[in-house]
Amino acid sequence: MKRRDFAAALTAGVAAPALLSATPASAADRSATGLLRHMRAVLASELDDKDTAEALVPLVYDVGFDWHPETAPSAECDFVVAYAFGNRPPVGGGDPTKVRYEPGPVNEQLADTVAKVRARRDVPVYAQWEIARFLDSKYGMSDVTSIEPVIAPDGTITYLSTDGVAAQVLEARKKVPGGVGTACVIGFRDHHKRCVQTTRDRGMKAYAPRGFAMPHTYDTESGQAWTRRRDLYLVHDMLAQWTVLHAKQIAEAYPNG
Asked: Measuring CA to CA, how many Å separate 38 from each of 13, 19, 23, 57, 194?
């Protein structure tokens, strides 16, 4: 099957359910089923290998077509963890390796989301520093642990990755009587799924809070180029997902190296 035929098949697979008399949920399910079926057929033809296509298509679908994390009621969470997204260059300029960036408007929106969740569930909050600054200055929120960047003796700043933040949260939660508990994860809409998955990969039970919308407007002035536009960010996020998946697949296939 040629690429133009693949595009037509995908269009048909996605559009057909909308023509059916079905509930929105069943239409979405049918759309996904149709897409997966066409992906398997096209990849099997392209690779001339049905078994490999069967193994790969669920992974491709998960990384490229599924952008919503699993949710749970906020009442089930024992703590909130909030991951930052983007920033702004330092107002006064200076050496970017030693002058801390500004939190930026997206992280203020993430702080607003934390405040909404916290209003429903009064639990400890672990927030990346860009968000924690607003939780303090805008809300005067108590019981907030700010996850700070690593600063070397010479003043060089190393900002934490999503996984780096999760690792810091886990270490903090290990000290809490009664165990780590369940995390309610806050993150930018397109980053949210990976935030939940990364929290889980660090050994914590984690969900997105059900019924809460996440910030989704990109900051065109962000100091991180990949967080300025959605098309650029999604490629960045998919790369991050593939990198983790790659390591997991190899470890599963060859646990002894």
From this structure: 7, 18, 22, 10, 26
